[in-house]
Amino acid sequence: MQVHIQKCQKCNSTNLRNIIARDDAQRVFVQCHDCGSFVARYVIAPGGYFHEGRDYESFLRTQMLDRGFSSGRDLKTVFKEVSESAKAGFDETLKRTHEKYGDELP
Ligand SMILES: [Zn+2]
Questions:
Q1: Distance of CA 62 from the midpoint of ligand 1 (Å)
Q2: For residue 48, is pLDDT > 90?
Q3: 70 C-alpha to ligand 1 centroid (Å)
Q4: Which of 4, 5, 11, 67 could form a disulfide with 35 if both were Cys (CB 3.0 to 4.6 A apart)?
């Protein structure tokens, strides 16, 4: 796993704002909170959005919004798997980030 802490290309700030936009797809636009510049855009794969602390009902609404979800599996099991894998991914990413940046974490 490679990690990279995103920065504003104009002012080097790590103070960034994520704006989630939903229409035909879910996109995240990243704006610099310090200078207002456009930093990046991410397109989220169907079923790929996970928001920590969100309950099962909310998870279901998002899955339905995404439309691409094919049922047949127990959604509560999927919710549990997604939650666990997202948290494990976050923990691993933080570990790698601290290994890469050490005390100079931006
Ligand atoms: Zn900036």
A1: 31
A2: no
A3: 40
A4: 11
Is there a contact between 32 and 42 (Cβ–Cβ < 8 Å)? no
Cα–Cα separations (whole angstroms), residue 49 to 26, 39, 42, 83, 92:
9, 20, 11, 11, 18
* Cβ-based neighbours of 22, under 8 Å, separated by 6 or more: 65
The arithmetic mean of pLDDT across residues 52-63, rounded, is 78
Q: How many angstroms separate the CA atoms of 12 and 9, rounded?
A: 6
Which residue ranges make up each domain of the chain?
1-44, 46-106
Report d(CA 97, CA 33) in Å as an integer.
Answer: 22
Looking at residues 19-36, what average pLDDT do you find? 93
